[in-house]
Amino acid sequence: MKKLILIFVLILTYGTAFANDDILLYKVENKDLKVSAQSIADGLTANGYMVAKNQDMNGPYKKQFGTTTFQSYSLMSVYHPETSVGLVPKYAESGIFTPFSITVYQHQGDDALYIAFLTAKAQENIIKKKDPLFSDLEALNKKTIMSILPTAVETSLGYENVKTDKPLYTKYSFDVDDDEAVEAMGDLMMMMQNGMKPSGFVVANYIDFNAVLKEEKREDYLFYDAYSLCKLKIIYELSKTKPEAGAFAPCTMVIYHKKGSNKTEIVSLNIDNLTSTLAIDDKKLLAMLEKAQSDMQNIIEESAE
User: Fold this and answer.
1) Which positions ≥6 away from 2 have C-beta within 8 Å?
2) I need a labelling partner for 264 at 20 to 30 A (CA). Which of 107, 125, 210, 297 fits?
3) Is it true that the peptide bond before 99 is cis, omega within 30 degrees of 0?
């Protein structure tokens, strides 16, 4: 009996030793390929989510890099309107999760399909705010996935996230009078988009979230825009060994101006999110990620001059 108990304890210890509490990962058998990113997107829509973008990445992978290890690999930009309308007026920086990312993938030769997205704990840790709305959203995400895919099971990533004390997002603040803010924002975004293209950044999606806020009689902002940004080379390299990296891609950058503030602000995720959550230690990949962040920082700062 003692031996059996010891074995049971060892199994439990092994099963939790590599828990990654930043990413929720679901697994569903999909040998017949009946489950797709589109069927999941349709299910999310039916449950009150807005699917801003559902992008197949396998096509671009094959076109630009000539190969892929996936049967399918998709990135979704998703938000839950009620939750976002509750969060954004309280914490402007929380818009980096409006939309948040969901990745859906299946490797070639694998009978299982996977769905990955950030946990409430990860989102709260990134913006350093704790609010029941985050855990409510996580509970809703879980419930919705199970309603779409009743046979799906939560599974482990097999490695722990690495803790970091580095800031997980960057906020840029520019002094702009309220009555000049809208025109200045247009000029700023034109300059930024001109700078992004040569650096390989793509605006995968755009949301005028202030329009959503106004529908709910929330008049806090002159504008509140969310841009989903992607760099194909980076997600391709990440997905080779860490396909769950799609829980961060495309990354959302928000630009907003709160009424009466005389400030336009930009908030974007830092690369340290990926490196800590995904426990990345490959030097070549780290250098690529650090350069991407440096490039984006330069684009923002130079555009605002």
Assistant:
1) none
2) 125
3) yes
Q: Helix crossing, 120-127 with 132-148: angle to 10°?
A: 150
Secondary structure (3-state) at 148: helix
Query: Per-residue pLDDT tens for 175-221?
Result: 999 999 999 999 999 999 899 988 889 999 999 999 999 999 999 99
**Smallest Cα–Cα separation from 77: which of 227, 209, 264, 284?**
227
Write down the pLDDT at residue 31: 97
d(CA 169, CA 7): 43
The domain spans of the chain are 20-157+166-303
- Asked whether residue 2 carries a pLDDT value surpassing 80, the answer given is no
Q: Which CATH code for domain 20-157+166-303?
A: 3.30.310.70
| Cα angle: 74, vertex 18, 107; to 5 degrees | 30
Q: 92 in helix, strand or coil?
A: helix
Q: Helices in 51-201 by DSSP H: which ranges?
A: 58-65, 81-87, 120-127, 132-148, 181-196
Model pLDDT, residue 234: 94
Q: Using the predicted structure, report yes or no on whether residue 18 has a pLDDT greater than 90.
A: no
More confident residue, 12 or 191: 191
C-alpha 23, offset from chain centre: 10
Q: Environment class of residue 177 by beta-carbon count within 10 Å: exposed (0-12), middle (13-18) or buried (19+)?
A: exposed
Nearest to 100 by CA among 36, 183, 7, 24: 24
* CA atoms of 224 and 92, how far apart (whole Å): 9
Q: What is the DSSP letter of 35?
A: -
Give the contacts of 205 (CB within 8 A, at least 6 positions apart): 52, 53, 77, 99, 227, 228, 250
